[in-house]
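Usage

Read records sequentially. Each one opens with the input sequence:
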Amino acid sequence: MEQPFRVGLTGGIGSGKSTVAGLLALRGAAVIDADAIAHQLTAPGGAAMAAIARHFGADFVTTQGALDRERMRQFAFANPTARKQLEAIIHPMVAEETGRQAGVARAAGHRCLVFDVPLLVESVTWRQKVDHVLVVDCRPETQIARVMARNAISRAAVEAIMANQSTRLRRLQAADSVIFNDGLTLEDLSLEVAALAPCFRLSLQPAPSPIEN
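and closes with the structure output:
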């Protein structure tokens, strides 16, 4: 059986990476979302919650039994050691589930696997796991405006998140291809994805589905 083409998809917050992932899925890619997996692991009853509660204490667990994301975000931003400790709990579980989903997608005959990984560039292992790195890029001011509008948070809060992500230059240096998603309509963005589709063994024509950019 032919091995699927493996694409590592990444981009800064507010870049439109999730929209690009959706457009790739419409062309037949199996999208494996590392961030969504991490959220499942830290949801009520999630597999990571017992270890998080033991290590960080009950203050970081909501009354529903989920990770208190805002409290942890503030704590981890101020305490890099805590961030590494949290990653040491979550990342191996994400890797295991990512591998499981990839196996399911291969068995189903998908010719392209898209690994949607926000921290792909920061990772020391992800680059070796993919055949191609696709970066969704935009101007920092565009990122800030999009996230402020989407999440109803302050400019300072968005800038703090961006400061803890890989730099724009580092992402671009790691890229095999780049989609510059600034000032594009959804139709424009779809055309950008279509141009890459043959390289990724995907259909040129997407299945109809409403996606917001």
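Summary fields computed downstream for this record:
- The first strand starts at residue 5 and ends at 11.
- The chain has ten helices and five strands.
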